[in-house]
Amino acid sequence: MNISVQEIETLASNATALKNGRSLVDKKKFSNLKISEDGSLIWGECAGSGANPYFCSVDCVAEGKPVFRCNCPSMQFPCKHSIGLMYAFATGLRFTVAEIPEDIINKRNKIKKREEKNGQENPDTKAPAGKQPQNVRSIVKKIEKQLSGIDVAQKLLQNIVQMGLSGIDAATGSAVTGQIQELGNYHIEGIQLAFNNLLVELSCVHDDEYTGAVNQLNYISALLKKSREYLVTKKENPESAPELVSAIEEQIGYVWKLADLMKYGMYEKDAEIIQLSYYTYDDVGRKSFIDEGYWFNLKSGKIYRSKNYRPYKALRYIREENTCFEVLQIPELFIYPGDANPRVRWESQKLRLVTRADRERIISASSADYAETVKTAKAIIKNPLSEKNPVVLLKLNRAYIAGEHIVLEDRTGNRITVTDLPEQQIYTETFLKSILPGECEDIALTAMINNDIRTGVFSITALSLTVPDKIIRLLY
């Protein structure tokens, strides 16, 4: 077993849990510390406020997927006692070799039987985990329900347009909110979210500037049209595979399960990814905080994104993600359908240190042709349902200040302007000005594309810099 302080920080749900776990070690609360002969399990006792100690363990029999067990009443996972136990091991406290307790063996066997039943032992040869596919009749019934919901959504959109955005006051806004809530009855939660985001945009209107709201209206209109076309086609052939080159299923409201992604081959085995950027933002429409990371795939050279949703109501129970400074070695990297920067997810991981070769791989994969990058990005943005701020890697050649902004120039003279992105609360240009040299070699810039239709300016927003000996985070 190899548990580092960095791994403990990755596994903990929040900073308070880390502090409390470390405090238990400092106060010498642990006793009877044991480790199995094969090093897969550590366990021990931790004194609490009561007369009897808590029994906690960390089981790493499945590499990269630690199981935490403790008989304390905490709803936090892992609890402070499990975190403290890991700290005790990582800081060198003495653990005595002992036989694995019988109750742990029984629990391991139950997990193994459950995995065998779900076909998870060998995903390449066994059926994917989860329930069997629904029969054709139930699939058609659900599609019909969704199409009815789209009819309701279409009428709602027409009413909003007829009222005019400026005509939605407190009274009409309450009625609209009620109609949006009704959409939740039709299995089209993604469309419902799009309407909620419209209300958020309207709440942010200042000086009669409705650009954001109009953009959202256009998105909803395109989403309803595409959703209807997609569902009508799917109803004719309900057992056909879902569309995998776009995120339309998720945009309608489908929640992808890992078993489904595996079934359609949407995963990569033995992947290695490295984080290029990370930040947290408040998605008011979804009523969640979202931890978003951008990752470089060392094998394919693609840029993926990860999202950790933390609903307002469940903030206490969902661990906040954090910046990752190591390479993640992932047995199975699941890739969600999408176009630019598809979303990824994984169940287990191992960490290794980032090497110079890893950073040089990032630099070599960056684009030296800004014109081609812009062309590709514009094609993505042109689709009203695609990502409006795709993330790209640019190889730097020359940088200078023109007016208030940084201008980047490639070897053929193509230029692109660097700006902040206030809509997403990303302000990195000032920091970039202070560290970016004029002549740039062996530097890759992770950048978010921004096409501002109000000003007509096509620009990029800097997220991080990669040089051979380090990655410089501009956003964290």
What is the radius of gyration computed over CA atoms, rounded to a whole number of angstroms? Answer: 25 Å
Give the structural class: alpha+beta
What is the percentage of strand-forming residues?
25-35%
Please give the number of β-strands. 18
Total domains: 4
Gross morphology: globular
Largest sheet: 7 strands, mixed
Distance between the termini: 30 Å
Average pLDDT reading:
87
Tally the helices: what do you get? Answer: 13
Low-confidence segments: 120-134
> What is the helix fraction of residues, given as a range?
25-40%
What structural keywords apply?
476 residues; single chain; 13 helices; 4 domains; globular; 36% helix; alpha+beta; OB fold (Dihydrolipoamide Acetyltransferase, E2P); 18 strands
Task: Provide a short characterization of the protein structure.
This protein is α+β, with helices and mostly antiparallel strands and 476 residues long. It folds into four domains: 5-118, no CATH class; 136-236; 257-355, OB fold (Dihydrolipoamide Acetyltransferase, E2P) (Beta Barrel), CATH 2.40.50; 364-473, Bacterial OB-fold (OB fold (Dihydrolipoamide Acetyltransferase, E2P), Beta Barrel).
